[in-house]
Amino acid sequence: MHFTSEQRLDDGVLEREFTLGEIPGILWTPPSATAPAPLILIGPPPLGLRKMYPRLAGRARYYAAEYGFAAATIELPGSGDRPRWAAVEQARADLRRAMEAGEPVGDEIVDALVLPLVEKAAPEWRATLDVLLALPGLGGPVGYEGGVISIGIRLALAEPRIAAANLFAGSFVPATMFEEARRVTIPLQVLLQWDDEGNDRQAALDLFDAFGSKEKTLHANSGGHTGVPRFELDAGARFFARHLK
Amino acid sequence: MHFTSEQRLDDGVLEREFTLGEIPGILWTPPSATAPAPLILIGPPPLGLRKMYPRLAGRARYYAAEYGFAAATIELPGSGDRPRWAAVEQARADLRRAMEAGEPVGDEIVDALVLPLVEKAAPEWRATLDVLLALPGLGGPVGYEGGVISIGIRLALAEPRIAAANLFAGSFVPATMFEEARRVTIPLQVLLQWDDEGNDRQAALDLFDAFGSKEKTLHANSGGHTGVPRFELDAGARFFARHLK
């Protein structure tokens, strides 16, 4: 891991960009910490790190400044400045075409779009975790949150260091990921935008129902895809504060 | 209104029992207040004030001690120490019989059970509000929370002093109350136990969908009817704190 920039922000949070091999990422750490800080992995930005920076940094800095958590994110394979990935580009184009034509999005498009991403991204997040947890001031319990819910499901199931996950409901979840969801047992909070134009509400409710976790909470809010209420930021932080001790 | 008892509790909260005509009730006020305290109406205890006292007082004292809210509740017509009400007793018996026989609960049973209660209870709550808001230290904005969701719907729609409502999803909502729900516009939080044995999950989701409020949030938690997680108490208080300024 190489830190490529370092900046102390006006809320006291330290923001460092890094690369891990070819993967760019950002780490935010709290102004001061007496014990190892809990670490929130802020799940893959599907539109790329640069484009989603304001949203990612807004969440991360709130967690760090208000709750003393560290937070980190890395670029998805094939996104942002990382090399194009032909198979996923093709699947994205197929998805776009189907949606623009108003056709139902077939399982084969969803599988082709999501499964390779999960297979490649999940090990990258786990390797990043190895490195992050060895840094001074880190090493506390780990939470995961964010989009591309299938990657969240895989990590919640396969990465035992993740103690709790705050997932954003999304459509386009392959059937095999429903099967994995049934085997997830860590505490979950799931955020659903009730009137999300691009999201099948019933599929999201079915996925919430499928999760095997004994403690799971759904927060459904009126409004469209980008209308997540501001108060959910604090609700997410409080969820992690309960579980990352 | 006559106060029939007064007790300063160990958290500093003042608990006063009162009667308003034939209706018994309880008022909890915060240890100290500089401005008029917001008032939370803690919705009708369907099993009676005495039986549900620990749960009611637990919520009210938390609101008063932690958030500086006042809180009050009154006995439902036909419940607790109030005179029996033959029509409602009959409807309750019909409901019990249908459920024990594993039969579907018909609309006529639901209507007979709920509609007379709504018609009689809602004006009582409004009259209680008149008296409470005239007390010294009260007079702030009003929130409503609690069970018998049809009474909550009626009050959310008909009582303009109620600025926000935190409702507990329940089955047995008459079709006419769905129509009223569509006309509700105040901010809502709705609590649903995902695995509630006595509650039709789809009906609860349909009701949440029906509410006309621009700001509405559903908190669905895994677990049965009595398994509402402890953290929802604070989530309710924070909802009111956002809206009762």
Automatic annotation (TrEMBL), chains A, B:
InterPro entries: AB_hydrolase_fold (IPR029058). SUPFAM superfamilies: alpha/beta-Hydrolases. It comes from the Bacteria. This is Alpha/beta hydrolase. It comes from Streptomyces luteosporeus.
